[in-house]
Design brief:
CATH class of the largest domain in chain B: Alpha Beta
CATH class of chain A: Alpha Beta
CATH superfamily of the largest domain in chain B: Thiamin diphosphate (ThDP)-binding fold, Pyr/PP domains
Distance between the termini of chain B: 48 Å
CATH topology of chain A: Rossmann fold
Structural class of chain A: alpha/beta
Order of helices and strands of chain A: HEEHEHHEHEHEHHEHHE
Helix content of chain B: 25-40%
Oligomer: heterodimer
Largest interface: A-B, 34 and 41 residues
Radius of gyration of chain B: 21 Å
Structural class of chain B: alpha/beta
Strand order of the largest sheet of chain B: 4-3-5-6-10-9-17
Number of strands of chain A: 8
Number of domains of chain B: 2
Largest sheet of chain A: 8 strands, mixed
Number of helices of chain B: 13
Helix content of chain A: 25-40%
CATH architecture of the largest domain in chain B: 3-Layer(aba) Sandwich
Low-confidence stretches of chain A: none
Shape of chain A: globular
Strand content of chain B: 15-25%
Number of strands of chain B: 19
């Protein structure tokens, strides 16, 4: 069972570049699990990624066509490939900085056009690869290499952003919710339209050590505590909702 | 080779077209079936014509959110198997530079039509300039080569557009059609032939898509969806596309090959045209729209017995060094008129072993032939 998914990896690639405790390895596993459960052919899959740690999830690991692009532009590259050859099953996997900050314009426009792409945003709430600078997703007050006094700006709610722009399927889960996440990725892959899944993925190296989380397990515990379902959130007061992350599927334009 | 004579996409005959319409038709004739762009003066008529014509010939037209997305989606479409292009003007060309470097290192064949206007900055959007030639060569960071063509007529906007696709596919390199506002909006006769000679992408199943045995080779290029399990990355990579971000040999090998594959073929790519060079004492070296004024001037001078000639550069990059060397050997003086502050003058000076001077104009207007006549008469 544990080695079932090895057939989706390039045999010549023996390791990943991710830090100990990084959530991206779990996400990599869950994406492949969704593909496996759907029985999708890797011959028709195209994985497009941008620059940053999450851009390395598919490239070079996945044994399929991969396009590792410029910082911020993964969705634009993916749009060209999908529009010219609609038979390709195109999945974009990248980070929050890549997709929502430098690439934010392409994200909202692809959602507006409802281009048939599956976009997986691995959100670690920080710029990991460049050394832990503030992102547009860093929580208010969190410490980073460029916010030594704590982040003074509100973070994006990525799901609301994509919903507002017209995305057809929008969901948010943490890597601590693997079963829900696999189901969401399967739905997104099957959907004929723009789908967006925000995946909360811990970054102990850059986010954790600056914000007093001494080990990766503490970050996992924090995600378990903070992530609540949409349904649970309905019964909570504004006070109780503070600091919580609402997960689940959000109403899409086609509902 | 993969050259092929195919049926044209316009009925053979004479047309009265603008340069922008002609460049769009040339692309369609060459097999371009993906276009992505963003409106910008003075190039917008290209995307407007493509939008209409792709409905007839069956292409994919995308109006993107900006020029960054335009060229990036073109690269995505090319790897999905398309012949693809975008068109823009100076400010948009500036935005595209990062992706042009990406296309160079990933050896992605694509065509950009840059209709030059008076810059820098927003400058004069409806006025003419030739200020983008150095940007075309050096606009992205790092060492790479491109091919840049400089059309002087509506006929050549059509022909260079076809040639640009052929060169891009042959050498797996970005190719620029460096039109200027004056030729883009000029209307004149265009002769269209019944057939078009096009180069189709070389594919070889199972061969490495990013390496050759020789240091100046062009590898075959498969597409996504063909079962090749391609690894395409803008990071330094080996011949199979595997990222090599700290291997000095891999970096040097890749950078040298993507430069050498163009420079070693300079003689085949670089194209010039000679007018009245026999016995010419003063040779005007000109390109683009300015070459029209230069030819007019040289013909006026010849009528009064003055020994003037014209060397017209049809290719700017790779630079036609040999033709310039020849002119430098035979002429006493070379004059380079340009609608910029001497971007190509410096290149001519590198190779012409004679007196070389510039005639520069940056007022957003074409150079009047009489200015060239006066300049030549002053030294003859």
């Amino acid at each position: 069972m544990a080695r079932d998914l090895e057939k989706y990896l390039r045999p010549e690639i023996k390791s990943t570049p991710f830090c100990p405790g990084c959530g991206h390895g779990i996400l990599m596993n869950l994406i492949l699990r969704a593909i496996d459960e759907l029985g999708e052919s890797m011959d028709k899959m195209l994985f497009v990624s941008g620059i940053g740690c999450a851009g390395w999830i598919p490239s070079p690991h996945f044994n399929a066509d991969t396009l590792h692009t410029l910082h911020g532009r993964a969705i634009a590259f993916a749009t060209g490939a999908k529009m010219f050859n609609p038979a390709l099953n195109v999945m974009v996997i990248s980070g929050d900085g890549d997709l929502a900050s430098i690439g934010g314009n392409h994200l909202i426009h692809a959602a507006r056009r409802d281009t048939d792409l599956t976009v997986i945003c691995a959100n670690n709430m920080i710029y990991g690869m460049t050394g832990g600078q503030t992102a547009s997703t860093t929580p208010l007050g969190s410490l980073s290499a460029t916010s030594p006094g704590g982040n003074i700006y509100r973070p994006f709610d990525l799901c609301q952003l994509v919903l507002g722009a017209g995305g057809s399927y929008v969901a948010r889960y943490s890597v601590t919710q693997p079963l829900s996440l696999v189901e969401a990725i399967k739905k997104a892959l099957k959907l004929n339209g723009f789908s967006f899944i925000e995946v909360l993925s811990p970054c102990p190296t850059q986010f954790g050590r600056r914000n007093q989380y001494d080990s990766p397990t503490e970050m996992i515990a924090l995600l378990l505590e903070r992530c609540i379902s949409k349904e649970e959130a309905e019964h909570l007061s504004e006070e109780d909702l503070r600091g919580k992350i609402i997960t689940g599927e959000f109403t899409g334009a086609r509902d | 080779m993969s050259f092929q004579e195919i049926k044209g996409t316009l009925p053979a005959g004479s047309y009265y077209f603008s340069g922008n319409e002609a460049v769009a038709e040339g692309a369609i004739a060459a097999g371009c079936r993906y276009y992505a762009g963003y409106p910008i003066t003075p190039s917008s008529e290209i995307m407007e014509r493509i939008a209409v014509r792709f409905k007839e010939v069956g292409g994919v037209f995308m109006q993107m959110e900006d020029e960054l997305a335009s060229i990036c989606s073109v690269i995505g479409a090319v790897w999905a198997g398309a012949k693809a292009m975008t068109a823009t003007s100076g400010p948009g060309f500036s935005l595209m530079q990062e992706a042009i470097g990406y296309a160079a290192i990933t050896e992605t064949p694509l065509v950009v039509v840059d209709i030059q206007r008076a810059g820098p900055g927003t400058g004069q959007a409806t006025r003419v300039g030739s200020g983008d030639y150095m940007q075309a060569k050096w606009g992205s960071h790092g060492d790479y080569q491109v091919i840049a063509l400089s059309p002087w007529s509506v006929q050549e906007m059509y022909e260079h557009s076809i040639e640009a696709f052929n060169l891009a596919e042959q050498y797996r390199v970005p190719v620029f059609v460096m039109g200027e506002e004056a030729v883009a909006h000029l209307r004149e006769r265009l002769e269209v032939q019944a057939t078009v000679r096009v180069f189709n992408r070389v594919k070889k199943h199972g061969t490495p898509p990013f390496g050759t045995d020789s240091m100046d080779g062009v590898p075959p290029m498969p597409a996504f969806g063909e079962g090749e399990r391609l690894l395409v990355t803008g990071s330094t990579h080996d011949e199979f596309g595997i990222r090599k971000t700290d291997d000095p040999r891999a970096h040097a090998r890749l950078v040298e090959r993507i430069n050498n594959k163009i420079l070693a073929n300079r003689g085949k790519i670089a194209n010039t045209e000679s007018w009245y060079l026999d016995g010419a004492e003063v040779v005007v070296v000109a390109y683009g729209f300015t070459a029209r004024s230069a030819l007019f001037a040289v013909e006026l001078l010849r009528k009064t017995g003055k020994r003037a000639g014209l060397l017209r550069l049809k290719t700017i990059w790779p630079f036609p060094e040999e033709a310039i060397r020849d002119v430098g050997r035979s002429a006493r003086k070379v004059l380079v008129p340009e609608m910029n502050r001497g971007q190509i003058l410096g290149e001519v000076m590198k190779y012409a072993r004679c007196e070389v001077s510039g005639l520069n104009q940056t007022n957003g207007e074409i150079i009047h032939p009489q200015r060239i006549v006066r300049e030549v008469e002053a030294v003859l």
